[in-house]
Amino acid sequence: MFFHIFTNRLKCLLRDRMMIFWTLLFPILLAVFFNMSLRNIASSETFRPVPAAVVNDAGYQKNAGFRSALKSVSEGKDKIFSLTETTRKNAERLLEDGKIAGYLTVGDKIKIVVNRSDFDQSIIKSFVDSYLQTSSAAESILKANPPARSGLSAGLSGETDYLKAVSGGSADPDPSLNYFYSLIAMACLYGGFWGMKEVMDIQANQSRRAARVNLAPVRKLKTFLSGMAASLAIAFAEMLVLLAFLRFALNLNFGPKAGLVIFTSFVGSVVGLSFGAFLSSLVKAGENMKVGILISGTMFCSFLSGMMYQDMKYIVEKNAPVLGYLNPVNLLTDSFYCLYYYDTYGRYLLNIGLLGAFVLLFCAGTYFVIRREKYASL
Predict the structure, then answer these.
(1) pLDDT given for residue 164 in this prediction
(2) What is the Cα–Cα distance from 87 to 79, expressed in whole angstroms?
(3) Which of 83, 90, 164, 248 to pair with 10, CA 20 to 30 A apart?
(4) Considering the chain, what is the average pLDDT of its residues?
(5) If we measure between CA atoms, which residue out of 362, 297, 284 comes closest to residue 327?
(6) Domain membership flag for residue 27
């Protein structure tokens, strides 16, 4: 009987084109729009050498220290400047044409010539200020202790970095991933539409179909569980389609833990389904009101998880960390990012455990509400 109800319920649900659109096609369309707008966000945050020029005259050739310092930051893989040594007239022309951010002249003083103030110009000024500060310190030391010249030259030949950057994981951070992971989490919560439909089709006061179901000689719980199983099958299948589209059509990087990504999507589908069922059983208003509450609640949780504004996720973690643990969309988003970025599983297991607690809470609430409903007449 269970399998019979399951297969027929599955056929019935698949005929609901509007539900298929909102739970599958709508997230795919959002993913396409996200990809179009966020395609170059990672490359835009990559540092590019600042195009700059220096006037190659007698003053520049005479100042061997500055010439050496400038060339040292204009060579190699991690160079700061893309340097051009040229005449003053050509440097002015390059500046006017916007091909360089500014140029330097070396005389009694080192001067910076720019035509606007921006990030690149600030880098040029910071370099010159750092050089002048170091040169001034060296001159003061030599005046006080002339024999220290040899040791000082070796000490000023390069800077010593006493800090070492250690990555939290083996993957490279990608600022665009959080938007897509939040989108997947939102799609999981949109599976709540299927759970909401199952509850409405089992409550005799909601529709004529539900009234006929209650009159059938089958236990109400068996009918409900069969329908929920069919809804979960559809919701999880939709998540697999969405993941496949993101991975192979949009080339989104999920990292090497594909199995756990699929498992997390399954957990998210269960969370969404149970959330929709609990909401539908708790709210006694009509279908439009229930749908409105589900959409607004899901979108609010998605906003807090960083889907519309990435920094919002970190604002919540800094000012109200408890709110992040109470947000299933944030827990799912964080779970996907943990699988991508971290090599350890502590934080991921915490998120999955909290999501499991949400499932138990929603399922228990739905069960106790539905089992107590009695109808005087149908």
Answers:
(1) 58
(2) 23
(3) 248
(4) 84
(5) 297
(6) yes
Q: What single DSSP character describes residue 55? A: E
Number of H helices, E strands in the chain: 19, 4
Domain boundary, last residue among 98, 125, 156? 156
Domain encompassing residue 257: 2-41+175-370
Task: Measure the CA–CA gap between 201 and 227, rounded to whole angstroms.
Answer: 9
Helix, strand or coil, per DSSP, at residue 197: helix
Instruction: Indicate the helix (H) or strand (E) that contains 41.
Output: helix 41-44
For residues 87 and 23, give the distance between their C-alpha atoms in angstroms, rounded to a whole number: 64
Give the residue ranges of the chain where pLDDT is below 50: 152-158, 162, 376-378
Q: 19 near 194, Cβ under 8 Å?
A: yes
Q: Are 275 and 361 found together in one domain?
A: yes
Is 170 contained in some domain? Answer: no
- Residue 378: per-residue pLDDT: 46
pLDDT value, residue 348: 95
Same domain, 142 and 189: no
322-363 pLDDT, tens digit each: 999 999 999 999 999 999 988 889 999 999 999 999 999 999
- Can you give the pLDDT at residue 131? 82
Question: What pLDDT does 210 receive?
Answer: 61
How do residues 17-74 score in pLDDT, each as one tens digit?
A: 999 999 999 999 999 999 888 766 655 555 688 899 999 988 888 888 888 888 888 8
Among left, alpha and beta (phi > 0; psi -120 to 50; other), residue 306 is left
Neighbours of 24 (CB within 10 A): 21
pLDDT (0 to 100) of residue 352 = 97
Say yes or no: 35 and 54 in one domain. no
Per the CB < 8 A criterion, the answer to whether 35 and 250 are in contact is: yes
Q: Are residues 196 and 226 in the same domain?
A: yes
Rounded to whole angstroms, what are the CA distances from 341 to 49, 164, 257, 336, 364?
A: 28, 19, 10, 9, 34
Closest by alpha carbon to 66, among 143, 154, 129? 129
∠ CA 333-345-317, rounded to 5°? 45
Residue 99 and residue 51 in contact, taking contact as beta carbons nearer than 8 Å: yes
Q: Rounded to whole angstroms, how far apart are CA atoms 358 and 139?
A: 67
Q: Compute the distance between CA of residue 168 and CA of residue 21 in angstroms, rounded to an integer.
A: 38
Do 255 and 332 belong together in one domain? yes
